[in-house]
Design goal:
This protein is of the alpha+beta class and 182 residues long. The protein is built from 6 helices and 9 strands. A hairpin with a 2-residue loop joins β5 and β6.
Length: 182
C-alpha cells in the first residue's frame, strides 16, 4: 500500500472503509495486533524506543521503526524533563487533526502515566517533529466531549488503545498539541 503524506508531514497509510483502520501489509497487521496484547506490549515497551530513537535521529525524523513496522503515523515529541531540565525525546503515534496533532499517554496499558506525560504537564511547550516539519507546540490535555472525540479517533486508528484502557484503572490521557503562534 503506498504511503501518503498530509499537510502535517506525518507519513500514514491510506484509510480503508473499516472505521478508520489503516490499510496495512500482513506483517504490519501482525505487529499491531501483537502490540495490543499484554506480551507484545511488554516486549515492545522495553525494546522499540531503543531501536526507534537512533533511526529517527539518523533520518532526521523521516523514518521510524514503529512506522515501518506498523504503518501507523509516528511523530517525535521533545519535552523538558521536570527533574533534570534536560530535553527528552519520545516517538509516539501522532494523529493529525488539521494543524494540530493528538497523542495518547497510554504507556502500553501500564497502571501509571508515561514519564513524558508528567514532563509535558509541567512544561506544556514542546517540540514536535514529523517527516517534513519540526515546530514548537503547546500541549493541552483534553477533557469531556473533546477527549471522547479524540479518543474515538485514536482507537479508530489503532485498536490497541482500547486494549490498553481495559488493562489499566487510570483514564488514559489524550493530549492535543497546537502549533505555537508567534
Amino acid at each position: 500500500m503506498p504511503e501518503t503524506g498530509d499537510e502535517t508531514g506525518i507519513v500514514e497509510q491510506s484509510q480503508d472503509s473499516r472505521a478508520g483502520q489503516h490499510q496495512a501489509r500482513w506483517y504490519q497487521r501482525f505487529i499491531t495486533w501483537s502490540a495490543a496484547s499484554r506480551v507484545g506490549a511488554w516486549l515492545l515497551s522495553h525494546t522499540l524506543h531503543r531501536m526507534d530513537l537512533p533511526v529517527i535521529r539518523l533520518s532526521k525524523s523521516r523514518r521510524s521503526v514503529a512506522n515501518s513496522a506498523t504503518g501507523l503515523p509516528v511523530v517525535t515529541l521533545t519535552v523538558r524533563g521536570v527533574e533534570t531540565g534536560k530535553l527528552r525525546t519520545t516517538p509516539l503515534i501522532g494523529i493529525p487533526e488539521g494543524d494540530n496533532i493528538v497523542v495518547v499517554a497510554s504507556n502500553w496499558g501500564r497502571p501509571y502515566h508515561p514519564g513524558w506525560y508528567h514532563n509535558l504537564r509541567a512544561n506544556p511547550e514542546v517540540i514536535l517533529s514529523t517527516k517534513d516539519h519540526t515546530g514548537t507546540y503547546i500541549a493541552h490535555e483534553t477533557t469531556g466531549e473533546e477527549r471522547e472525540k479524540y479518543w474515538r479517533k485514536a482507537v479508530d486508528l489503532y485498536y490497541g488503545y482500547e486494549s490498553y484502557q481495559q488493562r489499566t484503572r487510570r483514564k488514559i490521557p489524550v493530549i492535543l498539541l497546537v502549533p505555537k503562534r508567534d
